[in-house]
Structures are given as structure tokens and as C-alpha cells.
Structures
1.
Amino acid sequence: MERKPLIAVYPGTFDPITNGHLDIIQRALQVSDRLILAIAKNPKKGPLFNLKERTDMVQSLVADLPQVEVHSYAGLTVDFARQMGATILIRGLRAISDFEYELQMAQANRKLAPSIDTVFLMPSQEYFYLNSTLVRNIAADKGDVSSFVPPIVEKRLREKFGR
Ligand SMILES: Nc1ncnc2c1ncn2[C@@H]1O[C@H](COP(=O)(O)OP(=O)(O)OP(=O)(O)O)[C@@H](O)[C@H]1O
Ligand SMILES: [Mg+2]
């Protein structure tokens, strides 16, 4: 049976993009035809890297993947997803710490946009405890983050913190 191409949106802060994000991107490509990486513009988080820096890093890491596009957005994720014609939201699910929050968001998003489903993907075991906060903290203390992020991100972190 013919079906419409599946468009998925993978939203996040990507401050900075880590090997965990990249793992989820690879897996998301197995369940979508077109994958839109949606970089949240003004997260209340007060990001270390500004939007352009975050976008540039992501862009350079997915440049060789034709099914992947990089966008930034403000406002509700589901509104952005709808504008893009997406029917899937991708979220990574790590240790139990993610679970409550992600469940709440998925339920809220379903209420706001019933035609969009959240698909949770589990990363490879080595990335189960990895988040961008950990990377920022280690890099700020001039620790070695080479097993957590790709080399171009490591370089940007080094420039940021001077090592
Ligand atoms: N190591 C990882 N394994 C699986 N999913 C991940 C991983 N890192 C991030 N994600 C997922 O990517 C999405 C976007 O996350 P986000 O960009 O906020 O990164 P984060 O690592 O949670 O950053 P922060 O520590 O700043 O909150 C979320 O669904 C998150 O669960
Ligand atoms: Mg997080």
C-alpha cells in the first residue's frame, strides 16, 4: 500500500549536540523518511551556545545525510511540527529520570495536536546517562569530553572555555 512520506521532527536545545543526540538521529532515520532537527530558539535554559552556534554545529554533523534538515523554532513544538507537515515527534528516552517529564510532555502534545504521535527511541547503552548539561559541566572544568561529543563540538567547547 502506498503511504505518504513520514516526516518526523526531533526537537531539542542541542546545547551542544552530543553523541547521544547523534545516536537518536541515526535511529530516527529508521522510522522516518524525512527528519527535521528542530533547535529551540530561546529556551528558558539560558544556553551556553547561542542559536547560530548550536545550529552550525548540528548542521555540519548532518551535512552528509540527505534526509535530514536543520531548522530552528520558537513557540510550541507541536505548532512547528504541524507547519512542517510532520506526524511524528522524536524523543530520546534515557534513564528513568527522563520518563515522568517526557510522559507529561507527550500527553500534553497529544491533547494539543492529536494527529501527531511522539515516538520514543532508546539510545545505545553507552549514552544512557549522557546529557548536554554533563558535557557543559565537564568542559567548563576543562575535563576531557572526547567520548561524549564529536571532535568539532569538542573544539568549540575548548574555544569557549579556553584550554
Ligand atoms: N544521550 C541521550 N540519549 C538519548 N536521548 C537523548 C540523549 N541526549 C539527549 N537526548 C534526547 O534529545 C532530546 C533533546 O534533548 P536536549 O537537546 O534538551 O538535550 P539534553 O541532553 O537533555 O540537554 P540538557 O542537559 O541541556 O537538558 C530529548 O528527547 C532528549 O531525551
Ligand atoms: Mg534535558
2.
Amino acid sequence: MGSLLYLSRGDVEKVALPMEEIIRALEAAFLDKARGLAEAPPKPGVHPRRECFLHAMPASLPQRGAVGIKWVAGYPTNPKRGLPYISGLVILNDPETGLPISVMDCTWITAKRTAAASALAAKFLARRNARVLGICGCGVQGKTHLEALKVVLPSLEEVLLYDVSPEAARLFVEEMAPRYPELKFQKVSSAYEAVCESDIIVTAALILREAEPVIRKGWVRPGAFASAVDFDCYWTREALEEMDLIITDDEEQLSYYRSSGYFPRLPRVDGELGEIISGAIPGREDEKQRTMAVFLGLAIEDMVTALAILERARRMGLGTELPL
Ligand SMILES: NC(=O)c1ccc[n+]([C@@H]2O[C@H](COP(=O)([O-])OP(=O)(O)OC[C@H]3O[C@@H](n4cnc5c(N)ncnc54)[C@H](O)[C@@H]3O)[C@@H](O)[C@H]2O)c1
């Protein structure tokens, strides 16, 4: 029957797939999706504890030779236990036979591919000369978003950081400032300060059913691009209504989530990331537009990233072969 390659979280981290490569892989995957060459049904979830989820995320991309599933958990109570908020596994299968070829930790993949998707949106929707990045929520996603956005927006000069936990903002600077000595980091004491002067806004706080939205009408300056990683939880409806162009990663999945009570404040979406990449709908059209990505996360991102990791891991001799 053969074997599969098991890659622990440490193995996946050792592969250290460069962010540039993840963004490229996602661009190809979203183009496939726009051309009807990808299959990724809306993710079903179970909820063993309040405000916690486990999602099953299958996808197939025949053009990329990628097929498999991510089984991912989000437990907002975990950081207090010294555990990651997001955890889980990816299973990759052989598209020819369906047999499993690899099982790997998905924590690193989720952290990086989510930010890569925002960066891909920024490539098409942000102003080329964007200078100031404002981040609300300085955890894992806050950090990977800086890494990914810097790849597509080398013009960035300044990062404004807001977190309800000043310690999280402090740790952000401690970890990221040495990696980006060319950037000026500034911790601010309100979400308003992180948003109102920023060209790029990332909200990466918590996804809660009973959210208390923070960002209000008039805060986002003309020409800004925003990525709401935490669904619409950080945004009032009036602030979202001010955005000129709102895209998502998959309208079918968004509708599925809406039908179960999520996104009560999101007024509309104007298209999908794949349609922007393929040119089916225009990206940014002028310097004044306020543009926005509201992505739920798609399994096509996980599968192409996991496959690239598997290929590198094999070359590097990493992982443990397990019999099937
Ligand atoms: N859309 C996607 O594909 C996707 C993928 C992964 C994670 N997420 C979401 O991204 C968010 C962040 O995930 P993470 O892994 O970075 O979590 P994390 O726990 O590492 O970081 C979250 C940070 O937000 C801070 N925070 C909480 N409430 C806040 C508030 N009101 N204002 C400012 N800061 C606040 C916390 O103190 C923490 O530092 C979560 O909502 C998660 O569900 C989305």
C-alpha cells in the first residue's frame, strides 16, 4: 500500500517556504478557481465549545496536482493555556489514486496563506505608493500580514499597532522590528489611531458571534485598502458601507456563512479575488477608492501551499515516513 510522509509543526517550519512563493502559488490557484478549474465546497464546521470551531476544508486543483483536506480548529481560549488559537492538520492525497501521500501540521500554513491571500488582494487593490500600515490585533495574523504585505508593497515605511493587550503589541515589535529595520514601528492606544492615517488596514482580532464592532464611518481615509481577517467583527455596517469595492475569496462560502448568522454587518460584495486576478472585474480604478478584502479562507490556498511544502520537505529529507 505504500507510505505517507508525516511533517510535524517543526518540520513544516524548517521547510520555511518563502512568502513570495506562497503568494505566487495562491495567485495560480485563484486563477484556476476563476476559470472553473478548482473544487472547494463551503467548509462545514462543528462547535464543541462556545465561540470555538473545527472546520473541514477539502479542495481539488487538478491543474496543480493538489488534492486534500484541512481539518482546522480555532479556540480563542487556547492562548491563555499557552496553546495556539489555530491548530490542525492537512492531509494531501494522490490525485491519481486518492491514497494519502502526506499528513502535516497546518498551523504555520494557516498563518502564512491567510496573509498571502490578503497580500494578493493588496497587489490588485492597494495604491502602489502605500506608506502606512495599521494593524488592529497584533497576534499571529498581524505578524504574517506585515510579512506578506511587505512583499507586494515595498513602499511601506511605517507600521501602527493596536491591540487590546499592550503586551501583544510589545511582542510584535520585539519580534518584527529586527526583521524590518527599515520600518518605523509605533504602538498606538486606540483602534482609531491605527486606522485613520493608514493606507493599508488589517483587522485581525477575534471572530465572535457576539462581536462589538469598532471601526466607524469616517475613519478610513480615501484611497486606503483594508483586509478584514476577522470577518466583519471589527467593522460597523456604516464603515463597511463607505467602502467603494469589497471583494471576497468565494461568494458561495460567504452565502453559506451568512445563512448561519455570520456577516450581519457586511452590506454586499462586488466580486471574488479570482475575478480580479483574471481581469473579469476591474481592480482599483482610481487613487481615491476605498477598497477591501473580506476573506473567509479557502482550502485551495492550503492545498497548494501544503503541496509546495511537501515537495521541499522531500528534497530536504525532512519528516517521518509512516506505513499506510
Ligand atoms: N479569514 C481567514 O482565513 C482566517 C484564517 C486564520 C485566522 N483568522 C482569524 O484571524 C484572527 C486572528 O487570528 P490569530 O491567529 O492572529 O489570533 P491571535 O490570538 O494570535 O491574535 C489575535 C490578537 O487580537 C487581539 N485582540 C483581541 N480583541 C481585540 C480588539 N478588540 N482590538 C484589538 N486587538 C484585539 C488579541 O489580544 C491578540 O493579540 C482570528 O479572528 C482568526 O479567526 C482568519
